[in-house]
Amino acid sequence: MSRNVSRGRCRLAAVAVLSCTLAYAQATRPHPEPSQTPAATPVAAQTQNSSSPRTYIAPDPSLGASARLVTMNGQVSVIRDDVPWALRVGDVIQPQQVVVTGADGYAEFQVADGSHFEVFQNARLIFRNNQGDWRDLLDILIGKVKVQIEKLGGLPNPNKVRTATAVISVRGTVFDVAVEDQDDTTLVYVDEGQVEVRHLLKPGDGRLLNQGEWVRVFRNQPLTAKVVDHGAVMQRALRASMDAAYQAALNNSNAGLKGIPGGGSTGGGGGGTGVGDHCPSNNPNCSAPAPPPH
């Protein structure tokens, strides 16, 4: 009897020691820095307290030539048969589809190599409009977009962004593009890295922009000289118009109104696999009809 009691006490002591050891290991285990954490939080949370504009989203080769909506706020739609269909976090857009944001809209999309782009309010763009070359990433029709192109194993990753007046060529950088008016005046600003800007309608040499430099492209004028953003005046002006969208996405994510894959909900969850399976964005009273025909 006493021998069994002793064995039982020994087992209890061993369990207690093991539990204490595991608790200590958990408490002292180093936690990843924010820059190491996969991008499951809105971009605002990742970049606002960082000296670098670059954020990280893990590559997802399963996306192929498509792009996934990873963060959003407000009205974000894709055009199908001339009808805007509301997108939700987790939905996937396909090449040659048109994305539109409303006055309160903000969206961040990821492509297969981990590169990503943010679309701000009152914007309209075509995703990979050139079937012959998926490196033509975006055609921006109106509005502001921030693009981050990731290098591939440290090597250049050529991509292009187009507007009606400009072609922006990049190999791994962070930059902003704004189509400012109906004349397609295009502003290009480099946050990090280097881009080349060429006038689409006027022959001549391009402009190579480095970090903190910008150029504005006018439809009926040759390409102007690049401008160095002394005092970050242009950067602050650009970010002022983007901060509200960042903050709204962050606040809604924290409040559980808008979510991210693996995070909060968005009304439709984060498990969407395509587009067109939600209500048209211009009909708030509908009840999720079947997708329109392709």
Task: List low-pLDDT spans.
Answer: 10-51, 256-273, 285-294
> By helix and strand content, what is the structural category?
alpha+beta
Q: Let me know the number of strands.
A: 17
Give me the Rg, rounded.
24 Å
Instruction: Calculate the terminal CA-CA distance, rounded to whole Å.
Output: 78 Å
What is the strand and helix layout of this fold?
Blueprint: H1 2-28, H2 43-47, E1 67-73, E2 76-80, E3 83-86, E4 92-93, E5 98-101, E6 106-110, E7 116-119, E8 124-127, E9 136-148, E10 159-162, E11 166-170, E12 174-179, E13 186-192, E14 194-199, E15 207-210, E16 213-217, E17 227-228, H3 233-255
Tell me about this structure.
- The protein is α+β, with helices and mostly antiparallel strands.
- The protein contains 3 helices and 17 strands.
- It has a 17-stranded mixed sheet that branches.
- Strand 6 and strand 7 form a beta hairpin.
- The C terminus is likely disordered.
In short:
The longest helix is centred in the N-terminal third of the chain and has 27 residues, at 2-28. Helices cover 19% and strands 30% of the residues. Strand 8 and strand 9 form a beta hairpin.
